[in-house]
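task queued by scheduler; priority normal; single chain, no ligands, no partner chains; default sampling; output format set to structure tokens
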Amino acid sequence: MRVGVHLVSFDVPGGPPAIGPTLARVGEAAERAGIANLSAMDHYLQIGGMGIGDAEAPMLEGYTTLAFLAAHTSSVELQLLVTGVTYRHPGLLAKVVSTLDVLSGGRAVLGLGAAWYEREHAAYGVPFPPLKERFERLEETLQVVAQMWGPDNGPYAGRHYRLAETICSPQPLRPVPVMVGGGGERKTLRLVARYADACNLFAGPRSPAEAVAAKLEVLRGHCEREGTDYDRIAKSVLWAGPLDPTTEAGGRAFAEQVEAYAAVGVTDVHVMPFGGDPSEFVEALGRHVVPRLADLA
């Protein structure tokens, strides 16, 4: 099983001047630790209720952060977990991600979701349409991105987006994997089956392996109806439970919990450092977690 690190807090020791050097150390530590994926949230205000500060706590713009991490890594994948569909026009999003892929040597992943944080939309004057429309925009964005990264440079005409041309030069260096995040059974998982290469679900005490298995069975049904290959889709989870990788015992206990998810088909687990120096968290993952999960199938 592959291990990813999801960066959620930028309130690091030393304050804002230390954020850049800290992230540089995170990238270097991730390479040494065998981390497969580095991700950040696509938010402009910090999320309250996670134990990492209120809306005034430090938060970085996601794709700028990934570009910085690209310069301090050489092999790990880079993505937002996940990009809110409301924040960027899909044509421009395709350019942003293709640029990241080219400059990182082919390491970009596009994660997409319907967006939910209404407060930051209102704060910055970003339209926040009803949920139904956000899902319509999500599907059109998936279509636009696929066309931008394909041979058809012609127009795109959807209900919400109209592009006169879909030129994207340079193209990504590799077919960029597309992840659709969320576990909604009627809409989200249908979009995974129809368009995506990966899904992302929650895992932890509130979402045990049996719950994830049930979601994956729903996804399998959507794949059968869409005529797509369920087995080609990478199944990832974001670990929302307690994790202490800084000790041998903590790493062993975590690996034992994650093994149940691997047994139902999960291939990737993303874990979050909530405070302190995240580079130390990453180094501890390399010592106590990554080697234990490497052999899980």
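post-processing summary
- Residues 203 and 211 are 9 Å apart (CA to CA).
- The longest strand covers residues 2-7.
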